[in-house]
Design brief:
The chain has 149 residues and is mostly helical. Helix content is 54%, strand content 11%. InterPro entries: Hsp70_NEF-Inhibitors.
Length: 149
Amino acid sequence: QAVPAGSHVRLNLQTGEREAKLPDSENGRSDTREERRRKRYRGSAGLGKVDVDANSFTSQELKKALAKMKESEKAERKVRREFPAQEEEVRKKFRPIEQLKEEFEKLNMKMETDYEIMVKLISKFNSSASTLDEKVAALYDLEYYVHQV
């Protein structure tokens, strides 16, 4: 789960849930939603902090950010050329999803995406033929998949 930078995050050991809290402002009271939106920043690869509000960019800032992006892209390509063995090593460890699907089909196993499973659970919940227990089970399973999203 993505949380704004500077948030306080903890794992509640009693419930097992992760909790996040926005930091209090300097005056001790929590910011309003609008103030938080104005203060929100995203870190970009090597670009430092970039204000999310698109109206606050000047053309010079955009040019500098684009130049830094191009530099980091060139450096990444250089690393790939210098260390092709690392990329090959990763390719050896993992197989493409298409190959995995074909292998599962040979085993008569259908690999379903989370989306497909969620659609089935929703149709089971909406079905008039489903019992109350089946609907409750569908809701619990759906809660699990929605929580992941």
